[in-house]
Design a protein that fits this description.
Elements lengths: L1 H19 L7 H28 L12 E4 L5 E7 L5 E10 L5 E15 L2 E14 L2 E14 L3 E10 L3 E6 L2 E6 L3
Antiparallel strand pairs: 1-2, 2-3, 3-4, 4-5, 5-6, 6-7, 7-8, 8-9
Length: about 180
């Protein structure tokens, strides 16, 4: 009986210490889910930015009657909003440069997520994207801090770079990542 009581007290003390400790770090799997949702949203935004720039009208539509986009070809600056198909929105601001022969393009932009929903995860916060392309080669860097709720909950920071040769490295949610997605 004494052993059971000591064991029960130790378990309760451990639960109390864990419950009163620092904020729990999001699991690597959950951080990966948040990164995936943010990466998909950023890719969608980049496609819409490219479409808006190609249209080059003063107010090209990003998503049929749900978002707006303004691009100044003289300065290369752009801004707009885009709606998530699942709810929420993101404000976009950034710059675009292209070489005279149009073989090198650079996009630098911020996405400010406001209750953006993707795959059951709601995102709030700002990420910054730097996308550089030269010929068939590219580099994509994403940094920032997001708060996630819904399917997974917590704060996730990003600093990851993906290259056209298949290499990637950086941190997602405090976890080191690196490798080659072609292998």
């Amino acid at each position: 009986m004494f052993k059971k009581s000591v064991y029960a007290v130790l378990v309760l003390m451990l639960l109390l210490v864990v419950g009163c400790g620092e904020d729990k770090k999001m699991s690597q799997e959950d951080a990966g889910l948040v990164y995936g949702a943010a990466f998909n949203a950023a890719g969608t935004a980049l496609g819409q930015i490219q479409s808006g720039i190609a249209t080059s009208g003063g107010n090209a539509k990003l998503v049929a009657d749900e978002g707006s986009f303004t691009y100044d070809p003289e300065t290369g600056s752009f801004s707009g909003t885009v709606q998530s198909a699942e709810g929420g929105m993101a404000n976009i601001t950034g710059e675009y440069t292209v070489s005279e022969d149009q073989t090198t393009m650079n996009y630098k932009f911020d996405l400010d997520f406001i209750d953006w929903v993707s795959t059951g995860i709601t995102l709030n916060g700002i990420i910054s994207i730097v996308y550089e392309m030269s010929g068939a080669n590219f580099s994509w860097n994403m940094t920032g801090d997001l708060n996630a709720s819904g399917k997974v909950s917590g704060d996730v920071n990003f600093d990851i770079t993906v290259n056209s040769d298949g290499t990637y490295e950086g941190t997602v949610g405090g976890y080191e990542m690196g490798g080659n997605y072609n292998e």
